[in-house]
Specification:
It is a single chain. By secondary structure, this protein is an alpha/beta fold. The chain has 3 domains: 2-125, Response regulator (Rossmann fold), CATH 3.40.50.2300; 156-230, Arc Repressor Mutant, subunit A (Orthogonal Bundle), CATH 1.10.10.10; 238-373, Tetratricopeptide repeat domain (Serine Threonine Protein Phosphatase 5, Tetratricopeptide repeat). The chain contains 15 helices and 12 strands. The chain has helices at residues 11-22, 36-42, 62-72, 88-93, 106-125, 159-170, 178-185, 191-211, 235-249, 254-263, 277-301, 305-318, 323-335, 339-357, 363-373; strands at residues 2-7, 27-33, 50-54, 77-82, 98-101, 137-140, 146-149, 152-153, 176-177, 218-221, 224-227, 232-234. The strands form 3 sheets. The protein has a 5-stranded parallel beta sheet with strand order 2-1-3-4-5, with helices on both faces. A hairpin with a 2-residue loop joins strand 7 and strand 8. Helix 10 crosses helix 11 and helix 13 runs parallel beside helix 15 (363-373). The radius of gyration is 29 Å and the shape is elongated. It is found in: Cytoplasm. One of its GO terms (cellular component) is cytoplasm. Pfam families: BTAD (PF03704), Response_reg (PF00072). One of its GO terms (molecular function) is DNA binding. Keywords: DNA-binding, Phosphoprotein, Transcription, Transcription regulation, Two-component regulatory system.
Length: 375
């Protein structure tokens, strides 16, 4: 049984909505309110699943009331009722279930009731809320973008739903202005259409995340969206943890760092052609390079030439035009009296620079190589 409350300051409209809802056997009208005061006084004491709210009420509009009800009862479904279509976009920002235009036909109301039933069935069938320390979600961002739930690939309702999740994940726990998202994902779309598409996509994303057991993790606050996702595994989170540990404790967790480098291949979301990725990709690239530098310094201190060489070669893959890395490799080969590898790595580097950039190694690299070539 769906338990609902109704709020409308127009007595006839309130009576009409109550009458229509009672025609559905699966719906119980718990209370109908004609004033905001009565609603706010009694709602905290009532057991209900859905609130049908008139958008325009004296003293406080339905959009504000919805925010209050959601603070009291986080999983409440909101259905807005109004004579004005212009409120539709604002309604979806509040994560309403539906938006009904007066006069409301029974067939249109039936669509809303069916949608509520579908949502209730989904919540019964799907996993319970993810508990603390339970990491059922695994996200790979390096070399591509793959999201797994209990080791199964997550499928997205639309291509834009996937992109929106990737974008918000890249700005995790940050308040991102709505228009910033529109500019990033719908730059070529007329603004009003872009807003509607954003809100539809947000709705799809919320449904997908709820289906995975992550409820109310995407919020809209003061004109901004914020994704607050906990209890998940990610290669980027692991990278952040390793660097934070080094910064706070002054030492590197070498074993975990080695495992991270071994299991991570490629740039941030490398397979996705999103224009907004580049700045985040550059940041992650620099973070990986920093971690590799820490490993090289550790191997230098512990005189582990084999792992030092291997890590420098990985660094060179990430930074193929770096004279500094080539110089470190050449210096290592000099220390190890490995002229053959020194010659090969230098010639390969020189060829890459000339082919890709039409330049030569810098003077310091040339002079260092000359000491090897003269032998």
């Amino acid at each position: 049984m769906i338990r609902v409350i109704i709020a409308d300051d127009e007595p006839l409209a309130l009576l009409n909505m109550e009458k229509k809802l009672k025609e559905f056997d699966s719906v119980e009208v718990v209370k109908a309110f004609s004033t905001i005061k009565d609603l706010l006084d009694e709602a905290p004491t009532l057991d209900y699943h859905v609130a049908f709210l008139d958008v325009e009420m004296p003293g406080m509009d339905g959009l504000q009331i919805a925010q209050i009800l959601k603070e009291w009862k986080k999983n409440v479904c909101i259905v807005f009722v109004t004579a004005y279509r212009d409120y539709a976009v604002q309604a979806f920002e509040i994560n309403s279930l539906d938006y009904l235009l007066k006069p409301i036909s029974k067939s249109r109301l039936e669509m809303t009731i069916n949608r509520i039933h579908e949502l209730f069935q989904l919540e019964i069938a799907l996993p319970t809320r993810v508990q603390q320390n339970e990491c059922s979600l695994s996200i790979q961002c390096l070399g591509g973008f793959t999201v797994l739930h209990n080791k199964n690939i997550v499928h997205w309702r639309t291509v834009k739903t996937k992109e929106l999740f990737a974008f918000l994940l890249s700005n995790l726990n940050s308040h991102v202005p709505r228009d910033t998202i529109i500019e990033a994902l719908w730059a070529e779309t007329e603004y009003k259409k872009a807003r509607v598409q954003l809100h539809t996509t947000v709705s799809y994303l919320r449904t997908t995340l709820s289906a995975l057991g992550y409820y109310n993790v995407l919020q809209y606050v003061n004109g901004c969206y914020i994704l607050q996702l906990d209890n998940f595994q990610s290669d980027v989170l692991e990278l952040e943890h390793l660097l934070k540990h080094k910064e706070e404790f002054g030492e590197l967790d070498v074993e975990r760092a080695e495992a991270f480098i071994q299991n991570s291949h490629g740039e941030y979301m490398a397979t996705l052609d999103y224009s907004w990725i580049h700045s985040k990709s550059n940041f992650i690239h620099n973070q990986i390079t920093l971690l590799l530098n820490y490993l090289v310094e550790h191997y230098k201190t512990t005189n582990n030439a084999e792992k030092r060489e291997r890590t420098l070669l990985v660094m060179l893959d990430y930074n193929p035009y770096s004279d500094k890395i080539i110089q470190e490799l050449l210096q290592l080969y000099i220390e190890e009296d490995n002229r053959a590898n020194a010659v090969k790595v230098y010639k390969d580097f020189k060829k890459t620079l000339f082919t890709d950039l039409d330049i030569l190694p810098n003077q310091e690299t040339i002079e260092l190589y000359a000491t090897i070539a003269q032998e």
